[in-house]
TrEMBL record:
Location of the GST N-terminal domain: 1-82
Protein name, UniProt field: Putative GST-like protein YibF
Coiled-coil ranges from the UniProt annotation: none
Pfam families hit by this protein: GST_C_2, GST_N_2
Entries under PANTHER family matching the protein: GLUTATHIONE S-TRANSFERASE OMEGA, PTHR43968
PROSITE patterns: GST_NTER
Species this protein is from: Planktotalea frisia
UniProt superkingdom: Bacteria
GO CC terms, sorted: cytoplasm
Signal peptide feature range: none
Amino acid sequence: MKLFYSPASPYARKVMVLLHETDQLSDVELVEGSGTPFAPNAEIIQKNPMGKIPALERPDGATLYDSRVICAFLDARKGDKLYPTGTRRWETLTLEATGDGIMDAALLMTYEGRLRPQELQMTTFVDAQYGKIEQACAALNTRWMSHLAGPLDMGQVAIACALGYVDFRHGHREWRKGNDALANWFANFSERASMQATLPPAS
């Protein structure tokens, strides 16, 4: 299998953390590549018509894309270690969707600052996206800490990768303010070997 990814992508980081946690890193060839909505990577378009990463090329089936699809596939190969069954499964999937929602908002903030001409940038748009992140963090801090503190699952991985991306691209924003429980959980979770091995580049 080949994983098309970028070390700066929080969605790709989810997949990489899963590979580490399920001991599948040696099963996948890593192919680094990146692009933007204005200049997508031509090779990646051949794997994912949306031109987005990550994409997982398989020798015996269609190339998979969207991090949630890839993570579910890879986890199933190892006996569903990070997607539990029963009631907790739906909580895990909801947390993963929350993490991806944080990533979506943070990425839009990044694109606004990096890709749109300065004279056309909308501060109100950026602030609205960050408002979604603030709302998500507040909900996690008040409603989801018991799940986050439980057995490792993909919901936790998604939240950690999302918060890591907010720090990476928007570190001046103070998502930790008023979210002490979430901040403490994130600090501890970030010490996992899989998280340390998948840190985004310094710049």
